[in-house]
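## Example record

The block below lists the input lines for one assembly entry, exactly as stored, with component labels intact.
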Amino acid sequence: DGGITQSPKYLFRKEGQNVTLSCEQNLNHDAMYWYRQDPGQGLRLIYYSQIVNDFQKGDIAEGYSVSREKKESFPLTVTSAQKNPTAFYLCASSINGRGHEQFFGPGTRLTVL
Amino acid sequence: AQSVTQLDSQVPVFEEAPVELRCNYSSSVSVYLFWYVQYPNQGLQLLLKYLSGSTLVKGINGFEAEFNKSQTSFHLRKPSVHISDTAEYFCAVSSGGSNYKLTFGKGTLLTVNP
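Predicted structure tokens for the full assembly:
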């Protein structure tokens, strides 16, 4: 089955540690996205990539980094510079083009202790 | 710049009652509109989308939405809800350009009570 996988489902880290969240898709989509979700805040865009080896900052990129070395993979690193990293993180992908919906992974819940 | 306002953060209803979840958007250009549903601790699933054509759009699970350009609204409706419709619903807008980004509303929690 085609889809988006995110791992792990739950992640715990100590304050001050960097952590990398995995996102893989086998839908052959060009575009991939990372969102952060906090209660009552909706989804906020962290980074997005429209093509391999290229990515752009979203609305809340500070304290995060990404890479796009392969079409199917778009890992997100939450660095120690992110002041409030505890959140639910969602990865999505879409066909590159106007009007195409985004398909979402199951999410990773990150808790920083 | 585009934005989305979901007018109700929570909507409680009884089973088999009709429901309307309200969404207003702002954009200076033509838009594409989406409704997504999220069940607890899961990703988002597309319910329906408006791209062009008929302003009444039908989606999965018996939901439909109507695009109203003059009122810049895209309200979601279902004539009779079930317990299983309890979830959070997000309205999103894309106004094109070169990046095809979606802007999401803050969500409406629909709770269906027996």
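Chain B is about 0% helix and 55% strand. Chain B has a mean pLDDT of 92.
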